[in-house]
Design brief:
By secondary structure, the protein is α/β, with parallel strands linked by helices. It contains 23 helices and 32 strands. The strands form 8 sheets. Strands 24, 25, 26, 27, 28, 29, 30, 31 and 32 form a 9-stranded mixed sheet that branches.
């Protein structure tokens, strides 16, 4: 279960967040514009694999440059269109749809009306919906739905419409063909609102005006072509338009706005086309002049009449061109339905789900792989996905979104790389931390910063050496189980190490229960002696707290643990510091006579009944930087083994703020006794040590683990000299017989 939750947290959750944010960003207009651009590129790329020509049931009648030259300036007199209707009507086309507005009355309307009455074909004139319909460069007020002219017009509202209409393109007014034109010909809305980038990709097949829903020109043309009655077409908004009668059965997918996702296949050259003037001239020769001429086949076809000449106003951007005739929007819709060649937008959630699974899998399996594998995944997946999206569009007109999935995937790769860098950095820090448990982290950082591998060799520098050891440690080994001993030592050594490192010390090594530390290396510390002295007192204070804790834990620990005491020795001076050992393995450590003296301070402390002892060099250096904060007690001079000259040595009693008035009084009386001791005033010295004994901070039988103190030690020495007086030239120096 923990593994599952770890997988979700580390891999699934980042993928969920990345893909959800990317999909939400995909709803923004600028992101949709980018996505549309990729769709246009895919549309252009499939031209060579699609049918070479549009469905022959539709013929686009083009008002082209040749037609403009034949009939002069646009717009032409409506008599031209009336004659065209009269002539083309004799060929019996299925329907003649005009993507042209005849909304303003004209003196020439009678000739157009004549043509309407003369043709046997069904004719559809364009109408417009809007607040104010725009015709050319002028605005014209449309009619309200309940206007008598609207009711008299040949509008064919869709009757069987179900679903939520709130997202349908809805307008309050309608601009109809002028006068009798709206009553003699069917009217259909030519509105095709552009998308945010100006390209018409979703084309409405219906528009709501008032309480009614009216078909647009493309849908109305198909209905007339297939002789669809109102009860033979049903609309389910957001799903489909279903046409079912003896001539056709079609299910046209639409969205919740009533629009079809236009599956652009052809520009002008892809449709079956004929020039307006060319067709009119051929028909005139055949039917009026009775000449033998070849006439373009129009029988039973949908004739879509519209402007294609450059310079006319009915042009706009498409995936093929920035200036595409807008009549081709309707023509492409009609062709999509005739061929049942629909575009399908793949819903977002399968893409999102697949992207989350792939993203989570990538985070799981490639995070720790080699850089080549990770790069192959990061680059290969987008390439494969773009190829798949292109293939789906080319082969089946399935619109698989590219931009937001790739954005989400890319953000996951950035996350993966960032997390990998962080993990590697943490690993380095972990290694540094592990190495820092053996040597000072400061040394590790300095070694890393230098960029050099550690080498054998050392240098001389002034430091303070620190040695500590547990009193009677062999007894612990006898009374504790190995696991208990390890637990106890780990707790004790952790406390000691943390304190000395907080004070700037560098851990040299552990030797069983012994702790060896250097202050002042590898980074120089001017106050190394003061820091070392403070560290000793913090360690002793912490040990007192640990004894209380261990005792409170009852039977877990034997009494020897409650009475644990540690002895510490310090010495300051010149030492050799560096990497020492073999060429294959070495330690950063310290060597020299002053290091040995520090070790003698620790081992010799037992003979004097103290737990923290230092040389005079440490005391002097400490007082230079710490003043009188550290309280010392002189214990005389000693010649340690391995040395010939006596060394003054001192007990570190404590920090000034922690030393009680009683202890200060003890130290004063003890110092007076030492003066009498050196003067061989044995009676006077004995009296002083007897008095100081009563004031000692560490008292045998009272202080845990304590069996002696300096007053007791010198009391015994005085008694010895009373029985065996020293030589006349005795200088009070003690010669150590043991290390």
């Amino acid at each position: 279960m923990k593994t599952f939750f770890a997988f979700v947290k580390q891999h699934v959750f980042p993928a969920l967040v990345a893909m959800t944010l990317a999909s939400l960003l995909g709803l923004s207009e600028w992101m949709q514009n980018v996505e549309n651009t990729t769709l246009d590129l895919r549309t252009k790329s499939r031209v060579r694999w699609q049918p070479p020509m549009a469905d022959p049931q539709q013929l686009v009648v083009c008002i082209d440059e040749e037609s403009l030259a034949a009939y002069k300036a646009w717009p032409w007199p409506r008599g031209v269109h009336g004659l065209f209707l009269a002539l083309v009507g004799q060929t019996k086309p299925s329907v003649i749809s005009w993507d042209i507005l005849f909304t303003e009355p004209s003196e020439d309307d009678s000739r157009l009306i004549y043509g309407l009455k003369a043709t046997e074909a069904k004719v559809i004139f364009g109408a417009m919906a809007g607040e104010n319909a725009v015709v050319g460069e002028k605005e014209a007020d449309g009619l309200l739905p309940d206007d008598p002219a609207v009711k008299a017009a040949r509008l064919m509202p869709l009757e069987n419409v179900t679903g939520d209409r709130k997202n349908l393109l809805t307008k309050p007014r309608i601009l109809l063909p002028a006068r009798e034109l709206a009553q003699l010909a069917t009217s259909a809305l030519v509105d095709t609102p552009p998308g945010p980038d100006g390209v018409r990709r979703r084309v409405p097949l219906m528009i709501a005006i008032g309480e009614n829903v009216y078909p647009t020109l493309s849908l109305q043309s198909l209905m007339e072509h297939w002789k669809v009655q109102p009860d033979e077409i049903s609309v389910r908004i957001g799903e489909s338009i279903t046409i079912k009668n003896a001539y056709a059965q079609r299910t046209i997918p639409i969205d919740d706005t009533g629009a079809i996702l236009l599956n652009y296949r052809y520009a002008t050259e892809g449709f079956h086309t004929v020039g307006y003037s060319n067709l009119a001239s051929s028909l005139n020769k055949k039917f009026v002049k009775k000449e033998e001429v070849t006439v373009p086949e129009t029988t039973g076809r949908i004739l879509m009449v519209g402007q294609v000449a450059a310079g006319l106003t009915d042009v706009g951007p498409s995936p093929f061109s920035a200036l595409t005739p807008m009549v081709l929007v309707h023509s492409n819709v009609i062709d999509n339905v005739l061929r049942e060649d629909y575009a399908h937008e793949v819903k977002w959630w399968p893409i999102w789900l697949g992207a989350v699974v792939l993203g989570a899998g990538g985070l799981r399996f490639f995070t720790q792989r080699k850089l080549v594998a990770q790069a192959s995944f990061a680059l290969g997946v987008p390439i494969i996905y773009v190829g798949l999206a292109t293939l789906l569009w080319v082969s089946g007109s399935h619109w698989l979104h590219i931009v937001w999935p790739l954005l989400g995937f890319s953000s996951l790769q950035v996350f993966m790389i960032t997390r990998r860098l962080i993990a590697e950095q943490r690993a380095k820090e972990h290694i540094k931390g592990m190495f820092g448990t053996y040597v000072s982290p400061a040394l590790v950082n300095r070694m890393v910063a230098s960029g050099e591998s550690p080498q054998l060799g050392g240098h001389e520098d002034e430091i303070t050496a620190y040695f500590s050891d547990i009193q009677g440690f062999s007894g612990f080994s006898e009374k504790l189980e190995p696991a208990q001993l390890v637990e106890l030592m780990n707790e004790y050594l952790t406390a000691c190490t943390d304190i000395v490192q907080e004070e700037g010390g560098t851990l040299d090594k552990y030797i069983g229960d012994a702790v060896v530390v250097m202050f002042g290396a590898p980074l120089p510390l001017p106050d190394h002696a003061f820091r070392a002295c403070v560290a000793t007192q913090r360690v002793q204070k912490n040990l007192r707290e640990l004894r209380v804790k261990w005792e409170s834990e009852g039977s877990k620990w034997p009494e020897i643990v409650w009475r644990m005491q540690s002895r510490i020795g310090l010495n300051s001076g010149k030492c050799i510091i560096g990497n020492m050992g073999s060429r294959s393995r070495f330690n950063y450590t310290m060597m020299g006579d002053n290091v040995n003296l520090a070790a003698r301070m620790e081992s010799g402390a037992k003979a004097w009944g103290v737990y923290t002892m230092c040389s005079e060099a440490t005391k002097v250096a400490c007082e230079q930087h710490g003043g009188d904060r550290v309280v010392f007690r002189s214990l005389g001079k000693v010649v340690v083994m391995g040395r010939s000259r006596p060394v003054p040595f001192y007990e570190i009693v404590g920090l000034k703020e922690h030393v009680s008035p009683q202890t200060h009084e003890c130290l004063a009386i003890f110092a007076e006794g030492m003066t009498k001791y050196y003067a061989q005033d044995w009676e006077g010295a004995l009296a002083c040590f007897a008095r100081s004994e009563l004031l000692e901070p560490n008292v045998p039988g009272k202080t845990p683990g304590v069996s002696s103190n300096p007053s007791l030690v010198f009391r015994d020495k005085v008694r010895y000299f009373q029985e065996a007086p020293p030589a006349a030239d005795w200088d009070g120096v003690h010669v150590a017989k043991e290390k």
